[in-house]
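Backbone Fold Data
Goal — fold tokens
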Amino acid sequence: RPPFPPAAGDGRLPPPGAEAPLHNLQAPAPHLAGDRNPRGDPRNLHLPRLHPPLDPSLPLLPLAVSHLSPPSPVPALPSAHASSPEALLRLLHRARHHPRLAALDLHLLLAAADASSAFRPDHRLTSLLAARLAASRRLPSLRRLLQLVLSRPCPCADDSIFACPDLLPTFRKAILAFATSGDIPAASEALASLRRAADSPLPAEFYNIILHALARLHRHDDAIRFYGEMTSVHRVAPDAYTFNILINSSCRVEGVDAAMGWFEEMQRRSCAPTGVSFNTLMRGFFREGRHKEGLKVAHEMLQLGVGLSVA
């Protein structure tokens, strides 16, 4: 017989695979409060500290707390907590610092979606989840979130023939996360999905994310091809940031003469150069020992009213 049987509600977790409501995760009993031994009882020595108690204000959810990554099967959520996106959003906000619930954010959403075919996450909920998944580099989960967003449109679109106007931030976070990680196919797929779902042409900002990732990966030829697809196929007007990416990439890969070609293309499209444009060209000329041409660029920069910088 063990020296002291576990008392009810002593904070111990159920065995692996067992389902237990989270209200069982109570604060440890006083005699299990860690390695302190005020009465000299040898049974109290070297006991590990348990997780902090669950916030009593959180709703009680029957989650498989002993299997977190990911739970299998996905935990069933009571209808009271899956009744609306607002209720789930409040739950996620309140559980964001909990050591166990924080890792279950997407699984809570999927459980709510599985519990009711009428459940549709709104843009506030999906934007919050996209930010969390992107910050923690959970890219497969991020891809699953986008699939859910496309299959169950935001309720904002019910009163309009157009898609939800606040859909863009969710996809922007996802595209940026994919591109930053170097997964260009996933970023391009997310961009194509957004292009089909949106009711108006996308701004150049979304294309610049992938363009910058290609340049950062030293895929200069792919960046030029992507620019051609952006302008010719999708009819997106490039902005100053688009050209600054191409000017900088050309300076590093082909030389400053190729970068000057993009600078001239920038002016042909009536896109005003910025200080970054001029600084990149001057740095390219000086790197190649062509100081007079670099000073000429600086003179033109001052004539256009763009101030010099220390960059």
